[in-house]
Write a structure and sequence with these properties.
Layout: H1 8-29, H2 37-51, E1 56-64, H3 71-89, H4 92-110, E2 123-132, E3 140-147, E4 152-153, H5 155-190, H6 198-206, H7 211-216, E5 222-226, H8 230-249, E6 257-264, H9 272-280, E7 291-300, E8 306-312, E9 317-318, H10 321-332, E10 340-342, H11 349-355, E11 360-365, H12 386-406
Parallel strand pairs: 3-6, 3-7, 7-11, 8-10
Antiparallel strand pairs: 1-2, 2-6, 4-5, 8-9, 8-11
Helix pairs in contact: 1-8, 1-12, 3-4, 3-5, 4-5, 8-12, 9-11, 10-12
């Protein structure tokens, strides 16, 4: 039997399996913030499930600072709040406050570097990799990836939805720009170290209006509340596990293609699991004569927004074009004309794989103007989309068969036009 010949009723069972297991993990393992007991229990559970299907299961471990990734928001809240009263005493010190706010943000969020990690407590997290071997020599490898951890709730997004969430960010940006502008003016008119007077005094008083928004930024991510993470990203974890399970259950073993389910931990802490995987397996995807492709799935919830991301990590990293083209080709066979896009704010694990020299693509099904469930307590097992999961499952099986047959050469004969 070919992969794409798996019967419809078996595919339906796979989708039901995905939904049932997502509920099971959420109900039984509790909060799964990076490096938590809940995340590690979920990883152990998934490893056991993969052990029933795969020929080999690996469980790696690494250290993570779970609160460090959003730590930059604390720096913004504290130092921009301090910048307002400091302005009246020494305008030049406002620039220091802005620098102490923006540098952590650039390194920690824009570049996803572990800039603040040494300042925060560490926990132990991990990755799980289940390998379903071919019947013959390994010549190709497909790695399907999802992350097991869940994020700290975006407080203002939950309170007021996307408009309040976006407004909270825009108002802070405006506040930073305003404080920079008036500090520059005061340095010229009143001197960099003297107390401000005249019009400079009044524009400084007007700046007080931004203080509540600076302070509110402390709750950008509320570390007291961990979301269930049903769609982000248990849908991806069980898409990977279900794909391998379907091969096993239907007696399909490819001749020369290895299929791997890779469950990474601590993605929400700045792609720390995927980054650790690259460090711990430096030659894994560079074996000579073994074509290897990574498919990273993220938030498989809104079918109408299903798309392929050929740029990642705030638009700074290129994912593999051929991998993207092959996925697009496979989706077209299931009636989906998927567009290429960029992760302009944030990142997926594919960025870490691509930076590490691996050939990866990222696929997500979510509205860029994020729905209220995203990164809030509403991302629960009662808010799944079986329709979306079913379509992605079909495309995943199509991708496995296509890559098994042609490898990356499939992109050169794509029957779906690419989007620039």
């Amino acid at each position: 039997m070919k992969v794409t010949e798996i019967p419809a009723e078996e595919r339906e069972k796979s989708v039901s399996y995905i939904c049932d297991e997502i509920k099971n993990v959420i109900v039984n393992f509790g909060d799964r913030d990076p490096g938590s007991e809940g995340e590690n229990k979920a990883l152990d559970y998934m490893a056991d499930q993969l052990g029933e299907t795969c020929d080999k299961v690996d469980r790696d471990k690494f250290k993570v600072a779970p609160h460090a990734f959003f730590g930059w928001t604390y720096f913004v809240a504290v130092f921009m709040t301090l910048a307002v009263p400091i302005y009246f005493l020494s305008p030049v010190m406002v620039f220091v406050c802005i620098l102490l706010s923006l540098v952590p943000m650039i390194f920690q969020f824009v570049l996803y570097a572990p800039f603040l990690d040494p300042l925060f407590d560490k926990r132990e997290s991990g990755n799980v990799m289940g390998t379903y071997s071919p019947s013959g020599e390994v010549r190709r490898r497909i790695i399907i990836n999802g992350h097991s951890d869940a994020v700290y709730e975006w407080h203002w997004h939950y309170i007021g939805g996307y408009k309040m969430f976006l407004s909270s960010i825009i108002l802070v940006i405006l506040g930073v720009v305003y404080m920079f502008a008036i500090a520059l003016a005061a340095c010229v008119l009143c001197g960099p170290f003297g107390m401000v007077t005249g019009n400079c005094l009044w524009i400084g008083i007007a700046g007080i209006v931004f203080v509540p928004f600076f302070l509110a930024f402390w709750l950008f991510a509320d570390t007291r509340k961990v979301v269930p993470g049903a769609n982000d990203n248990l849908t991806a974890c069980y898409m990977a596990i279900a794909a391998v399970k379907a091969l096993k259950d239907n007696g399909i073993r490819l001749e020369n293609t290895e299929v791997v389910a890779l469950i990474t931990g601590s993605e929400e802490a700045g792609l720390r699991g995927a980054t650790a995987f690259v460090k711990q397996h430096p030659d894994y995807a560079r074996e000579e004569n073994v074509e290897t492709v990574f498919i990273t799935y993220e938030t498989l919830r809104e079918l109408e927004y299903l798309g392929i991301y050929d740029r990642d990590l705030n638009g700074t990293v290129k994912n593999d074009r051929a991998a993207c083209e092959i996925y697009k080709k496979c989706a077209a066979r299931h009636g989906m004309d998927l567009k290429f896009g960029s992760v302009f704010a944030g990142a997926t694990d594919a960025a870490a794989f691509s930076k590490g020299g691996y050939r990866a693509t990222s696929v997500a099904a979510m509205n860029p103007e994020v729905d209220k469930y995203y990164h809030t307590r509403l991302d629960n097992y009662d808010n799944l989309s079986p329709e979306c999961l079913s379509k992605v499952f079909d495309i995943t099986l199509e991708f496995i068969e296509e890559f098994d047959k042609n490898g990356f050469a499939s992109a050169e004969t794509s029957d779906a036009p690419s989007e620039e």
